[in-house]
Design a protein that fits this description.
There is one protein chain. By secondary structure, the protein is an alpha/beta fold. It has twelve helices and nine strands. The protein has a nine-stranded mixed beta sheet, sandwiched between helices. The termini are far apart. The structure holds guanosine-5'-diphosphate (GDP). Guanosine-5'-diphosphate (GDP) binds next to α3, α8 and α11. Guanosine-5'-diphosphate binds next to α3, α8 and α11.
Amino acid sequence: NFNPMMYQTNDKSPLQIFVRAKKKINDIYGEIEEYVLETTTFINALHADAEIVDKAERELFESYVFKVAAIREVLQRDHMKVAFFGRTSNGKSSVINAMLREKILPSGIGHTTNCFCQVEGSDGGEAYLMKEGSDEKLNVVNIKQLANALCQEKLCESSLVRIFWPRERCSLLRDDVVFVDSPGVDVSANLDDWIDNHCLNADVFVLVLNAESTMTRAEKQFFHTVSQKLSKPNIFILNNRWDASANEPEFQESELAKVKSQHTERCIDFLTKELKVSNEKEAAERVFFVSARETLQARIEESKGNPPHLGAIAEGFQIRYFEFQDFERKFEECISQSAVKTKFQQHSSRGKSVSGDMRSMLDNIYERITIFRNLKQDQKNLLTERIQGTETQMMQVTREMKMKIHNMVEEVEEKVSKALNE
Ligand code: GDP
């Protein structure tokens, strides 16, 4: 049984649950592949020697080689996927950038992406993008160029642009998290296509709301459709732009607390009563009040060696910054456990069934070989018995012949001496 918690030892990031489980299952599959190859070679040799294994059986063994190789390939590519949804300009791209600690996705007015953008790690320090249906690696020199590439292209709203960013630049990319940014849910009529093409294998969904307004019908409708197609999707809700509320001159602290609790209640109700995807306790851990723009600025300051608060936009920076970090921690726990379950549990039971099937086939062949060997032994025994019988007979015949010859010789001698005497 695959227990994700088994892998949660000393490492600080909860993402290591997935990283270690992936390494472990890849190692196990490496061993399964060796076993399958070795067995198939052995079976082929048996087939050449004797008629113990038939053609169908041999082909079945060979099919396991392909099956295991295909699973290994999928396993090596498996990752954790998070998809961001919400209305245009709520800050989806900014949240992704804040999590990546760098301005990778273009954001802001005029930089609205009208297609899906996926950010994933690349090996070898390269940054490039790839458009759907093409293998061409388009070099990404800087963010401006990337923004232009995404805006100028007449891309279909449900098509996908993949942005490959050097793994070593960000721990989330290094640990195999893939980010998907979507066009605003307010612009699309094709929610079904979106979900079928980009969401069915997402481990976590993040709904990015604008804390200055209430959740819209389009935002709700999108998640209703998601939860009809997926059983219990993991949904986090970020009330973004919380700095703006703190900046409102007419907002007293008590007023702010009231707004926050109203939003919280609505979000929890949405997850529990409307979508029925979580219970109250779980839902309370999935709703956050953050400022993506501020967090990104703080992290850029940090990367320059400055204190993070230099990125602050409004009063209460520290609380919002902590809340963003709290979101990241809970998100990491959720995504790694969910990905281990959905991605590896299936593979581990397939691996078990392949090795189980091969074992019972081998047991079967072994049984046949034993019967075959016993049969040969019986034939050998019978032959030995016969030979022994013939030998005894021969000895008797020889003895009789000897006696006869002896008697004949004596008889002849007697006759000869008799004749001589006469
Ligand atoms: P998207 O369309 O949902 O991806 O939104 P963007 O990330 O492109 O953000 C739209 C605009 O809102 C940009 O100018 C961002 O800088 C700004 N923005 C995003 N998040 C925040 C935030 O938390 N606070 C403030 N004040 N502005 C934000």
